[in-house]
Write a structure and sequence with these properties.
single chain; 134 residues; alpha+beta; 5 helices; 63% helix; disordered N terminus
Length: 134
Amino acid sequence: MRRWTTLIMSTGALLAAAAAFAGQYDLKEMTPAVQQALGNRQARFNTLAQQKAAGTIGEDNQGHVARLSGGSEIADLVAAENDDRDVIYAAIMQQNSLPADALATVRQVFAETQREKASPGDKIQLPSGEWTTK
């Protein structure tokens, strides 16, 4: 929460809106695309968690996962996860009638959530861009 407060203070109204956003906007309809994205994420959850524990994948500060090392198999895993997250982010924006410029806020809110949910030892990217180990 301390990081979130710092963010709000340092970036002004945009992130103040993000704090309000977190409690107000969500998925209102489980469309087939959202169901597929959520199912895909669930199916790869254990593999993703293993790769995070191994340090090959981390949670970036834009609501995506990032490949920190590893080859094409890791790159494919990261791309698939990020594609599914983007489907969910787009649905949240559409279902809540958010303007296109709100995407950055949506992603920042989810990045903060993923940092908080990260397991000890996982790599996370702070809002400043610095990578650290939780």
